[in-house]
Structures are given as structure tokens and as C-alpha cells.
């Protein structure tokens, strides 16, 4: 690996779409990513950054192993995967929230050991631990809303941006958990090896986020 | 189930990597023996209580029950067993020890990390002088030259800098801990929110700068000059400055930086901490510090001590294999053994062929990329 270049692992899909305009606002050329076709790695000679596109959980693995210097990934994944790398910036995009949801007849205070369906078993366990409740967790990979509707689980812990999908599936929100947004995370060793270059990027992005929020306000 | 599979997180070591690692170990052993350190070797198995006091970070231990029903663990650390050893024997102090051995830490499943790691290290026990820290720094400097032919960057820190600074800010222990955690994890969104409540205080500027208080010593100290630090912190900083001045004088080529915003390498460190890293490495190669209170974990009396661990696996991965000259494989008859033995001594990179026939010896030589030396003078093919 060429250690003179800063390797940025960007979560592909929605995060990528939301973050590319922000990176561009911060003066980073993203033309290659915009015209990516099926490529996953982008090294442009005009700037010190090399981009790779990966799935969220893999971004944390790349970062953990030092195969990437910087990761751009949702805080949901960072918390669920117990990442212990440096979280330097909240990019204030991809904002949503964890909720506890279920059908209308669900009683959160019913004295029984509840069954909870979720894509995020660690976050779910942490939430119920805090409430002092022991629950049975069922790991579900997608369409989590199905779990209470089919009787697989009593309730779900999932992320929602506007609550629409939950409402459309006749589910109700019973509690609000942690807020989620996209974060910029840095490998611990990389921050020592490339502190100047990494902070230049962080400061530029922070400026771009502030401008963005100001323009939203006016 | 197949019977030839390894448990997760383990590996066999063979070939180039095994050779590189063996070489790293022998260089470290020779170096430390020459400096007069005594070797110490403790068992792989320890009672769980030895490690009880210290939750050793982000990993679990391998545990078993012995025949008495006591919980036994595969050691996850080398320093605590040595502290246990010292507290249970009447070894006169001060003493300098070194060790090389394997430690076991269960890392996250399928993360690509190994659970069995080889560590070398030193423990200087019974020394309260700063000379103990300086000896560690000299060893980092010399060993990195010897092993990697390059200097690593030495990074100095103060284990209790953060708690000491925060004591002046608030008496709320829980809040102190929260701020320290967020600072150490460089979880900036959370950290910024936590310090917001102090935005009216003169210390706020320092709090704001704190996560970036690492790097070039002059820059960091210049930054600190802008703030009014407590006497206790000032004296810690002046120790740090003294060490940096000493390094510049005694090892002028050595690159050195400071870090006042990171967690100490081990939670039992109490004073100065030091680590060594290399531009190409994925982690620190050397890490150590002063741990004056550790022995009190096992006995009433405390002893001043400084220790340092060396990541043998990482150094082995970083050392490039040397281009050795080609091996010679000596083929001979049983009754030529003495003659073959003499050749083995005479030729620097040679090995005896144990094949029965010359054809087999040729295959053996080919497999080892060696030139065959035939002492039998026998050209017959069988």
C-alpha cells in the first residue's frame, strides 16, 4: 500500500450520494466517483486522496485493519460494530433515528420477556439493558417491519428517517432511541502518520457543513 | 468435521515469515542480554485473578476450569504475571528483566486479527529515577535501527494528564470520565457537546484545542504556553520537556513527538508513557510507561517500575527478507557421514540431504531451491 496517499473508504449507496456533494463543496474532486460505472477504487493524481467504495460494515473493517485511513459511514454501523477508531466529524447528513416500533396492540410495560426483531442486536441489547429488561433478540437482515406483523417478534428496533415506512406498515413508534448521522472516522495510526493532511480535510469539510447549514437557515 | 483445521484467529508459521520472526526474536534477546537484563519466563496459564483488577481493553480471554474448579486463563498480558512473580518471591530489587513469549487475546470474530501474539518486552523494577524511562528510549532507538535499519518515531505522553486537568474543571467524577472517554476516543461530536457547558470559562479554549494536542513537541508546548496550568500539570510538562531535551542531546537523529490527548497504552500506567511507531506500520511497535502502583495489586508495598512491550509480529512483518545466497544440499553415503559433517561446517549455507538415492536427492534439492553437492561420486541412476 502506498502510504503517501490517504485512502478514504466511502459507504456506497445512499451515504455516497449524500456525501459526494459535500466533499465537492469542500474542494475535493469527485468526478471519478460520479462516473464510476462498476469500478470500486478511484485514485486521482490531482489530489492526495484515493477513494474506495464499500458496504458500511466493511468500511469499519477496512478502517480497523488499517486498509483505509479514513472511513465515511453511518453512526448506526459504528455503534453496532463497536468501532474504536477516531470519530472526528459529524457530517450532518443521513440524519435519522432509532425507534422502538410495533403494532397498535403492543404493550411496552407488559410483564414478560419480549421478543425483539432487529438488524442491530448490539444497539437493541444496550437499550433494553438500560431499561433493566432482558429480551430475546432475533437478528433480521431486512424488511424488519415484517417481524411484528407476522408474529415473529413482539416489537422491532430499527432506523427511521421520517417514520413513513413504519406508518405505512401500520406500526406505531413507542420510543425514540439514539440519533444517527453520517460520520467521518479516522484510523488511530493514520492520524499520527498523516495528521496534517487529515486535519486539512476535516477542517475543509467542517467549513462546508457550516455553510450548508447556514444556507438552510436562510 | 474435518480434523485438520485451525481454530479461528491462529496460524502456522513457516517459511520466510517464520525465519524473519525468529531473527527478530534472536536480535532482541541478544541485545537485551548484552545490556545485562535477566531473562524471565512465566507460564502460559495463570489464574484469572491475576488479571482481575485490569479490564484489558477490547478483547476477551481464553478461560478453562482446572481440576479444582478454579478459572485458569491463557495469559493476555506479560507484565501482570511478572508483578505476580515478584510479589510471591523475595527477589532483591532493583532488577531488570526481559521476556519473549506469546499472549492470547480473543479479538472480534472474523475480523482478520490473530488471537495469539508474540510479544517481547522489558520490566525495570525498583527504579524511581527517570533513568529507567531513558533506558527504554535508548532501547527503542537502538533496536529499531538494528531491526528495521530505520528510526521509528518516539511519541511521549503523560498517563494521568487528562484526569489531572479535569479535576480542576469539575468534581463530578462521572462527567470527568465521560469527557476523558470522548477525548481518548477522539469522538469529537460527543466531546464538543460535553465541553459546551464550559464555554464561558477561560479554560474552554484549551478544552477545545485538546483533542489536537499531539505532534511536534515545540508546537504543542507553544500551544500550552497560552494557558494557565496548575502547578501539578506544569511539573509533569517540565519532566516531559526535560526528556525531550535529553533525547535531542543524546540521540540527535531520533524523531520525537508528544501526545497529550490519548489513552495510555495500558491502564496501569501512572507516569510518563512512550510508544514507537513507523510510517508504514498499522500499529505501535513499542509501547511502555511507568507503572508505580502495579505491584500494590499483589502486595502491600508498592515498587517504582517502568516497562515496555515490543510487538514481535509487527516487526517481523515489516522486516524485508534478506537475499541469502543459494543453499547447498550435500548428498552422501551413510559411511561418508564424517566427510559430509565437515562439508556442512565448511560451507556457510548448507544442509545435509537425507535421501537414499541421488534421484531423490535431486528432487529434495529442487524443492528447497538448493544446489546439490554429491560426495558419492556416483553417477549411476537407479
Q: How does this structure look, described?
A:
Chain A is α/β, with parallel strands linked by helices and about 220 residues long. Chain A is about 35% helix and about 30% strand. In chain A, the strands form 2 sheets. Chain A has a 6-stranded mixed beta sheet, sandwiched between helices. A 5-stranded mixed beta sheet of chain A has the order 8-7-9-6-10. Chain A is elongated. The termini of chain A are far apart. The model of chain A has no long low-confidence stretch (mean pLDDT about 90). Chain B has about 375 residues and is an alpha/beta fold. In chain B, the strands form 3 sheets. A 9-stranded mixed beta sheet of chain B has the order 1-5-6-12-11-10-7-9-8. Classes of the chains: A alpha/beta (about 220), B alpha/beta (about 375). The interface of A and B includes residues 66, 84, 183 and 195 of A. Chain B: It is found in: Cytoplasm. Chain B: Heteromultimer composed of HisG and HisZ subunits. Chain B: Its main location: cytoplasm. Chain B: Pathway: Amino-acid biosynthesis; L-histidine biosynthesis; L-histidine from 5-phospho-alpha-D-ribose 1-diphosphate: step 1/9.
Question: How would you summarize this macromolecular structure in one to three sentences?
Answer:
Helix content of chain A is 37%, strand content 28%.
Topology, number of strands of chain A: 11
- N-to-C SSE string of chain A, H for helix and E for strand: EHHEEHEHEEEHEHEHEEHH
How many DSSP H or I helices of chain A? 9
- Domains of chain B, number: 2
Sheet with the most strands of chain A? Answer: 6 strands, mixed
Tally the beta strands of chain B: 15
Largest interface: A-B, 20 and 25 residues
The separation of the N and C termini of chain B measures 43 Å
Shape field of chain B: elongated
What's the level 1 CATH class of the largest domain in chain B? Answer: Alpha Beta
**Named CATH topology of the largest domain in chain B:** BirA Bifunctional Protein, domain 2
Q: Looking at the chains present, what oligomeric state does this protein adopt?
A: heterodimer
Structural class assignment of chain B: alpha/beta
Please tell me what the overall shape of chain A is.
Answer: elongated
User: Helicity range of the residues of chain A?
Assistant: 25-40%
Q: How are the strands ordered across the major sheet of chain B?
A: 1-5-6-12-11-10-7-9-8
Low-confidence stretches of chain B: none
Q: Helix segment count of chain B?
A: 12
Amino acid at each position: 500500500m502506498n502510504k503517501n496517499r490517504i485512502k478514504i473508504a466511502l459507504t456506497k449507496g445512499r451515504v455516497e450520494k449524500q456525501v459526494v456533494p459535500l466533499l465537492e463543496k469542500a474542494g475535493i474532486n469527485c468526478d471519478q466517483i460520479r462516473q464510476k460505472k462498476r469500478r470500486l477504487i478511484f485514485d486521482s493524481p490531482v489530489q492526495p486522496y484515493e477513494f474506495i467504495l464499500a458496504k458500511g460494515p466493511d468500511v469499519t473493517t477496512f478502517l480497523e485493519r488499517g486498509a483505509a485511513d479514513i472511513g465515511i459511514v453511518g453512526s448506526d454501523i459504528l455503534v453496532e460494530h463497536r468501532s474504536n477508531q477516531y470519530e472526528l466529524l459529524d457530517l450532518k447528513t443521513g440524519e435519522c433515528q432509532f425507534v422502538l416500533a410495533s403494532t397498535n396492540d403492543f404493550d411496552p410495560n407488559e410483564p414478560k420477556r419480549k421478543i425483539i426483531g432487529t438488524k442491530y442486536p448490539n444497539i437493541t441489547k444496550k437499550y433494553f439493558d438500560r431499561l433493566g429488561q432482558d429480551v430475546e433478540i432475533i437478528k433480521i437482515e431486512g424488511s424488519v417491519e415484517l417481524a411484528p406483523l407476522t408474529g415473529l417478534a413482539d416489537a422491532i428496533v430499527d432506523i427511521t428517517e421520517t417514520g413513513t415506512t413504519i406508518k405505512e406498515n401500520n406500526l406505531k413508534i413507542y420510543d425514540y432511541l439514539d440519533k444517527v448521522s453520517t460520520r467521518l472516522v479516522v484510523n488511530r495510526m493514520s492520524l499520527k502518520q498523516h495528521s496534517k493532511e487529515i486535519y486539512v480535510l476535516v477542517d475543509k469539510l467542517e467549513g462546508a457543513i457550516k455553510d450548508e447549514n447556514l444556507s438552510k437557515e436562510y | 468435521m474435518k480434523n485438520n483445521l485451525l481454530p479461528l484467529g491462529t496460524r502456522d508459521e513457516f517459511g520466510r515469515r517464520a525465519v524473519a520472526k525468529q531473527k527478530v526474536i534472536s536480535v532482541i534477546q541478544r541485545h537485551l542480554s548484552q545490556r545485562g537484563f535477566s531473562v524471565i519466563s512465566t507460564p502460559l496459564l495463570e489464574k484469572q485473578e491475576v488479571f482481575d483488577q485490569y479490564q484489558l481493553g477490547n478483547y476477551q480471554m481464553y478461560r478453562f476450569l482446572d481440576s479444582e474448579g478454579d478459572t485458569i486463563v491463557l495469559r493476555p498480558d506479560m507484565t501482570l504475571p511478572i508483578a505476580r512473580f515478584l510479589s510471591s518471591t523475595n527477589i532483591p530489587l532493583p532488577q531488570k528483566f526481559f521476556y519473549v513469549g506469546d499472549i492470547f487475546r480473543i479479538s472480534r470474530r472474523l475480523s482478520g486479527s490473530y488471537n495469539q501474539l508474540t510479544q517481547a518486552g522489558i520490566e525495570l523494577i525498583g527504579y524511581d529515577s527517570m533513568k529507567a524511562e531513558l533506558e527504554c528510549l535508548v532501547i527503542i532507538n537502538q533496536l529499531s535501527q538494528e531491526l528495521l535499519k530505520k528510526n521509528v518515531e518516539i511519541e511521549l505522553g503523560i498517563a494521568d494528564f487528562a484526569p489531572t486537568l479535569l479535576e480542576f474543571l469539575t468534581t463530578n467524577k462521572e462527567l470527568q470520565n465521560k469527557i476523558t472517554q470522548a477525548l481518548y476516543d477522539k469522538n469529537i461530536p460527543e466531546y464538543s457537546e460535553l465541553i459546551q457547558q464550559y464555554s464561558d470559562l477561560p479554560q474552554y479554549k484549551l478544552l477545545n484545542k485538546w483533542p489536537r494536542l499531539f505532534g511536534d513537541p515545540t508546537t504543542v508546548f507553544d500551544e500550552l504556553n497560552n494557558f494557565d496550568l496548575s502547578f501539578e500539570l506544569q511539573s509533569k510538562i517540565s519532566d516531559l520537556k526535560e526528556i525531550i531535551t535529553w533525547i535531542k542531546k543524546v540521540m540527535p537523529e531520533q524523531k520525537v513527538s508528544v501526545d497529550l490527548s490519548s489513552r495510555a497504552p495500558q491502564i496501569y500506567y501512572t507516569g510518563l508513557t512512550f510508544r514507537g511507531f513507523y510510517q508504514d506500520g498499522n500499529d505501535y511497535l513499542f509501547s511502555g510507561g511507568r507503572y508505580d502502583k502495579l505491584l500494590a495489586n499483589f502486595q502491600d508495598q508498592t515498587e517504582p517500575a517502568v516497562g515496555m512491550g515490543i510487538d514481535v509480529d509487527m516487526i517481523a512483518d515489516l522486516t524485508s527478507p534478506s537475499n541469502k545466497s543459494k543453499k547447498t544440499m550435500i548428498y552422501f553415503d551413510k559411511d561418508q557421514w564424517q566427510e559430509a559433517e565437515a562439508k556442512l561446517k565448511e560451507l556457510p549455507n548448507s544442509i545435509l540431504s537425507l535421501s537414499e538415492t541421488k534421484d531423490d536427492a535431486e528432487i529434495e534439492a529442487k524443492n528447497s531451491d538448493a544446489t546439490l553437492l554429491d560426495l558419492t561420486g556416483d553417477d549411476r541412476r537407479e
